[in-house]
Design brief:
serine acetyltransferase, domain 1; Lipocalin; 4-stranded mixed beta sheet; 15 strands; DUF4214 domain-containing protein
Length: about 425
């Protein structure tokens, strides 16, 4: 058996302050020592971040032969990145070194505490290992934590300790040969509990158990950062969108002033309506049961307060289908500009420029130019801009009293490209 590399670094860490309670579902045939070997991965500087503007929930990350494809589910744009990359999003980060430090931390974290690592703690320990701390030193800190004592007992016997390693990490009872082996080496002092935890964490059996959870990257919070924290008012709105992937359908998400997220919609496959609710976190994240009419889905995602877009994933465990969702605030309808422009032209210019002039002293349209119809106004748009907006020479002597606010409205119409 190969022992873990021991770091010569001395560091004092307060576990509670950095999410120190971390675990990784581990594995390994508990029998032969050969099966429990786990070679440490060489440490080194962390790779530079590849940055993306949206929340992590706005992207899918999928492993492929060339590394990973990162796809924006809002725009459909896909970016190919190399294996081992680190991705930075608006709210969190994803590590793609699933054979490197991030994976080592994830596994030892889950092995020690039999739970998914928390994002801040995971980020802290990834940073430590990126800076040269060995996985064994991480394990030694975990073993002294209160959470570990609650999980394994304050002073367990070697039998209790090894049995719980099998239960918590490999999710099974120990086989006799493996149990006898580990009890023997512990009772003889040939190894210690820290190293045994590490062996289980890095066993092939545990790597296989953890692999599906990290195959497409490991989400974490870089050390020194935090999730966004916004007041509920920043999210209050209705978001309309759709589901795609293994099934399709429509989706409406409503966030009320209490921060309750209510979702409802229709799934096309089974042709049923579904719904659910959850409490929105200050980070804009939410996770809910979403179902009804015999369907049971989960929705997990976030709302980006800056863009007004809700994104995430959905899964239907029973139907073995999954996919993504995108919902956004309705774009406010801008008032049409042309009716305002036509009203101004009619009031200030048509008196002189019309087939039926009304301005005293004028019997025909001046210079042969009429503004009676939309087509006539649009045909003379360049002239109107030059005379009424740029030089402000017209109306002549401003006899009809065109205001600056009206000229500004005309200018806005031209700036917008003379829309409807």
């Amino acid at each position: 058996m190969r022992a873990f590399r021991r770091s010569s670094m001395l560091f004092m860490l307060v576990l509670a302050a950095c999410g120190g309670d971390q675990s990784t579902p581990a594995s390994k045939q508990g029998g032969a020592p050969r099966a429990m070997q786990g070679a440490p991965v060489r440490q080194g500087d962390a790779p530079a971040f590849i940055t993306f503007s949206g929340n992590a929930s706005q992207y899918t990350v999928v492993a492929n032969a060339s590394g990973f494809a990162v796809t924006d589910i809002v725009t459909g744009q896909s970016t190919q990145v190399a294996a081992g990359s680190r991705l930075r999003f608006a709210d969190s980060a994803i590590a793609l070194d699933i054979q490197g430090n991030a994976a080592l931390v994830y596994r030892i974290y889950q092995a020690a505490f039999n739970r998914k690592p928390d994002l801040p703690g995971l980020g802290f320990w990834i940073a430590q290992m990126d800076n040269g701390v060995a996985q064994r030193d991480v394990a030694a800190n975990f073993i002294t934590s209160e959470e570990f004592a609650l999980r394994y007992g304050a002073n367990p016997t070697n039998l209790d300790y090894v049995t719980k390693l099998y239960n918590n990490i490999l999710q099974r009872a120990p086989e006799k040969a493996g149990l006898d082996y580990w009890l023997d080496v512990l009772n003889r002092g040939a190894t210690n509990r820290v190293d045994v935890l590490g062996y289980f964490s890095e066993s092939e059996e545990n790597k296989g158990l953890v692999a599906p959870a990290i195959a497409n990257g490991i989400e974490y919070l870089p050390w020194g950062s935090s999730l966004p924290s916004k007041p509920v008012a920043d999210y209050v709105a209705q978001y309309n969108g759709s589901l795609s992937g293994g099934d399709t359908g429509n989706l409406t998400i409503i966030v009320n002033s209490s921060g309750v997220v209510q979702a409802g919609g229709h799934i096309n496959g089974p042709n049923v309506d579904v719904g659910g609710s959850a409490q929105l976190a200050a980070s804009g994240r939410f996770e809910m049961d979403y179902g009804g009419n015999g369907q049971a889905l989960t929705l997990k995602g976030s709302i980006n307060a800056a863009t007004g877009v809700a994104t995430g994933t959905w899964a239907n465990a029973a139907a073995k289908t999954s996919g993504v969702f995108v919902a956004s605030k309705p774009v406010p309808q801008q008032p049409k500009l042309f009716p305002q422009v036509q009203a101004i032209i009619t009031q200030r210019c048509v008196g002189c420029h019309s087939a039926h002039t009304t301005f005293p002293g004028y019997n025909t349209a001046q210079a042969g130019i009429s503004f009676d119809t939309e087509a006539q106004i649009r045909a003379q748009a360049a002239l109107i801009k030059s005379e009424a907006v740029d030089t402000q020479r017209m109306p002549f002597g401003n006899a009809t009293g065109m205001t600056q606010a009206e000229r500004n409205t005309l200018a806005a119409w031209f700036a917008a490209g003379t829309p409807q």
